[in-house]
Design goal:
about 45% helix; transmembrane helix; alpha/beta; six-stranded parallel beta sheet; P-loop_NTPase; 24 helices
């Protein structure tokens, strides 16, 4: 059985209608005879959503007990046993209750897909893992329930459920999303027009990028070379000159005028050495392009206009921006230039913009090394001089007789000119034509193809030899120039590549993409295997071409190590390109090794941190836990002894010591377990709305009477917390404050509301803590000052802060006016957007 297909309804915010769309799709499939079940859909007690569930088979949920409360989650095993064709699973980013089969619901969905079951699910854009920082900057709330982007990207279908901010706010105001008592708070906080507009843009852009990936894949699979102007992509052709900055800025302005415009700056390092570029200037232009939201590409091409057009068509560009040529007027004799050639060959699907700049017409600044050894125009002129030059010279010499020696020197000058212009072949042609004309017109007997004097034969042979020699020297010089230019282009690329790799700025996928772009290939992959007879695996890949399983399946493969190879598909590369490709392969192996070393270093750091905590834990256990155990054992042994008759008062004192030791053990073990949960990341708060006056008094049960003054007004707003975690946090703070307060000075626990937050302050009159130690006291296994060993293992404040942050709050230390320390615990007030984001409720579609 194959893998199931995943369809996702993506929305910008709660309430746009994702669940309604999913249920409507389910009804359509059931009507077509598809076996479809509801694995998990939350209707939030709304009649219209509940009506949409009628007629659909629902798999019973699994009940789980957590913190004396019963929760229901999707029963993955039951769905697998039922084995439907399609399963509906709402809220893909949901975090399951502890005790579930998997920690996250998307992991449950992966199990269903692996079993061949198609899944239809929903998710909001703010729950994508990569957008966490962006969403937090927009809404002010950090998303704690996320789903990896790759899970959503792998979906077979992604459908955007869109709604304008105004329509969504009207739906909220009508009570179709949240309960009436939450509407005002939601409209003034999370559902502000600005928030909704920004989130909507994020969703639209993310889906647009996904659609663009589909389009690239389709064009690659069907080998579509014609440009489809579905999105404005502007390619900026750079020469490495200072005018590049002007071109990039102009292209960025053009991109801003179109929806979703994209700028791609490309520098083509010509293998024929066309105008060398300054690496420093290219680095500046690369930074400028990236700062303006574009990308920079470095490509090698023998023909600059053809390479530029091939790149533009390869990325499905719609416009090309070029600068007006820097050549002077007389230089146009050698050809129309890159701009005119690109404009001529671009066709109707590419617009070409020629931008004026300050460097136009000022000259190239550096001599031009002609391509293909000498260049097309010089070869043409060489043939004209080599073939027509001797004939013109013969006509002139027929009117002016200078003698055979002078005639031969003039014909030799024409041959040398042909060699300087066109190289070897035009010079050979000139020597051949010239020798025939010399023989016919100027060597006795005249007007015959014979030579009477043997000395004239030697002269003509020398004439031909000199012409061939000069032509050979010119051709060799041209080849050396061509090779030097190519090596210069290669060295620029390798220098740029090595710098990025050594600085750690290039990942494996980025490096493979650079390889693919540089050589104009469809795909590039780094393959590796453990041994000579083991199967190949893909360590990294770039491009949309067909995936290769072995190096011999690729068009080009280069070894990158003992059991590693770089494989490229698209075309066969010439031998001279393989030298650069081998360098790329070696760099790819280095990048892969560095990535793995970094991963091993991260694991080593995690192990070292774990060892540090375990060492501190053992050090704490060696005394702090052994002391109460020793006291309990001594008291029990004394009570069981038959040698001493204990009075009732003595027995009561011993029993009290046993109870105190047991309480102390219970507290220490509880803190150790809590710290372990925080270190391993297994603390999952169950947020709900509670009153502080219900939780805070329960946290004071373990402290002596009259040691705490409580000031929690009943008029405070409710807070969104996990009651159990809040109770443990406050209990640890109060215990710490009581421990350091002087006798007769009660600790004050007060609460107050500030904006959308509620602060709980635990104030003591103890010795206080200097500013430089205020953060250190929250680290595990830290005791401040000369606190005795029996004062605890130094976990209370660390646990309190960990629990506070897990609930979305903060815990900080401040000085108490007049002396002492104040612990400030800040919590979210009810209606401050957190609950809606953690468990978003889906609205029903309006029925009119």
């Amino acid at each position: 059985m194959g893998r199931g297909k995943l369809r996702i309804y993506l929305g910008a915010a709660p309430g746009v209608g994702k669940t309604y769309a999913m249920l409507s799709e389910a009804h359509r499939r059931v009507e077509r005879g598809t076996d479809c079940v509801v694995a998990f859909v939350e209707h939030h007690e709304r009649p219209r959503t509940e009506v949409m569930l009628h007629g659909l088979e629902q798999v019973a949920r699994k009940e789980l007990e957590y913190r004396d409360t019963t929760f229901t989650e999707m029963d993955v095993d039951a769905v697998l046993a039922r084995a439907p064709q399609v399963a509906l699973v709402d809220e893909l980013a949901h975090t399951n209750v502890p005790g579930s089969r998997n920690a996250k619901r998307w992991q449950d969905v992966e199990k269903l897909l692996a079993a061949g079951i198609d899944v239809v699910s929903t998710v909001n854009i703010q729950h994508l893992e990569s957008l966490g920082d962006v969403v937090e900057s927009i809404t002010g709330v950090r998303q704690r329930e996320t789903v990896p982007d790759e899970v959503v990207r792998r979906a077979d279908q992604i459908e955007l459920v869109d709604m304008s901010p105004e329509a969504l706010r009207r739906r909220m105001a009508h009570g179709n999303i949240y309960r009436p008592d939450k509407v005002d708070a939601a409209l003034s906080n999370y559902f502000r027009p600005g928030n909704l507009t920004a989130l909507r843009e994020l969703a639209l852009l993310w889906v647009a990028d996904r659609v663009d990936e589909y389009l690239k894949q389709y064009r690659s699979d069907h080998r579509v070379s014609k440009i489809w102007g579905s999105r404005e992509r502007i390619v900026v052709g750079l020469t490495g000159g200072p005018e590049g900055r002007t071109l990039i800025r102009r292209a960025a302005r053009l991109a801003e005028k179109g929806a979703g415009g994209e700028v791609l700056a490309v520098y083509i390092a010509s293998s024929d050495g066309l105008t060398a570029a300054s690496p420093k200037e290219l680095a500046v232009q690369r930074t400028l392009a990236e700062d303006l939201g574009g990308t920079f590409h470095h490509v090698v091409g023998d023909d600059i206009p053809a390479a530029l057009l091939a790149f533009a068509r390869g990325v499905n560009a719609t416009q090309i921006v070029l600068g007006v040529s820097r050549r002077k007027s007389w230089q146009y004799v050698f050809g129309p230039g890159v701009g005119a050639t690109v404009a001529r060959d671009s066709g109707p699907d590419l617009d070409v913009h020629l931008i004026t700049h300050d460097e136009a017409g000022k000259g190239r600044g550096l001599p031009v090394a002609r391509g293909a050894r000498l260049g097309r125009s010089r070869i043409i002129w060489g043939w004209l001089v080599g073939v027509l030059g001797p004939a013109v010279m013969a006509v002139l010499l027929n009117t002016i007789h200078l003698g055979l020696a002078n005639d031969m020197l003039l014909f030799l000058a024409v041959t040398v000119a042909a060699a300087l212009l066109g190289g070897l072949l035009p010079a050979l042609a000139s020597a051949a034509v010239g020798s025939l004309l010399l023989n016919y017109f100027y060597t006795p007997p005249l007007h015959r193809w014979t030579i009477a004097d043997p000395k004239n034969i030697v002269a003509i042979v020398i004439f031909v030899g000199v012409g061939v020699s000069v032509a050979s020297v010119v051709d060799l010089a041209a080849r050396r120039t061509h090779q030097a230019a190519r090596l210069r282009a290669e060295s620029e690329i390798l220098s740029f590549l090595a710098g990025n790799v050594l600085r750690g700025e290039t990942g494996l996928e980025e490096l493979l993409e650079r390889v693919r772009e540089t050589f104009g290939m469809e795909s590039a992959a780094l393959l590796e295997r453990a041994g000579d007879h083991d199967p190949w695996t893909c360590a990294g890949r770039a491009g949309l071409g067909p995936a290769v399983q072995r190096p011999d399946e690729a068009d080009v493969d280069v070894p990158a190590g003992d059991h590693m190879a770089l494989a490229l598909t698209g075309r066969v590369l010439p031998a001279e390109d393989r030298r650069v490709l081998a360098a790329f392969a070696a760099q790819a192996a280095v990048v892969l090794d560095r990535r793995r070393l970094q991963e091993e270093a991260e694991r080593a750091r995690a192990l070292a941190e774990g060892n540090r905590i375990r060492t501190a834990l053992l050090a704490a256990v060696s005394h702090d836990l052994r002391t109460p155990l020793a006291g309990i054992k001594a008291a029990v042994s004394s009570l069981r002894s038959d040698d001493v008759a204990w009075s009732e008062e003595d027995q009561a004192e011993l029993l009290e010591g046993i109870e105190e030791g047991a309480d102390r053990l219970d507290h220490l073990v509880g803190n150790l377990l809590d710290m372990s949960r925080l270190q391993t990341g297994t603390v999952t708060p169950l947020i709900r709305e509670v009153d502080l006056d219900e939780v805070v008094p329960m946290a004071l049960v373990g402290v002596p009477e009259d040691s705490v003054d409580l000031d929690v007004p009943e008029t405070l707003p409710m807070v969104e917390v996990d009651p159990g975690l809040l109770e443990r946090s406050v209990a640890n703070l109060v215990e710490n404050a009581v421990k350091y307060s002087p006798p007769g000075r009660a600790v004050l626990v007060a609460a107050s509301a500030i904006a959308d937050r509620v602060e709980v302050r635990v104030v003591d009159r103890g010795p206080g803590v200097p500013d430089e130690a205020k953060e250190r006291i929250f680290e595990p296994f830290q005791r401040y000052g000369d606190a005795p060993r029996g004062a605890g293992v130094g976990l209370g404040l660390a646990v309190a802060r960990g629990f506070a942050e897990a609930m979305g709050g903060t815990l900080n230390a401040e000085d108490t006016p007049g002396g002492g320390l104040t612990m400030v615990l800040t919590l979210r007030a009810a209606g401050s957007r957190a609950q809606e984001l953690l468990h978003p409720a889906e609205p029903e579609r309006q029925v009119t």
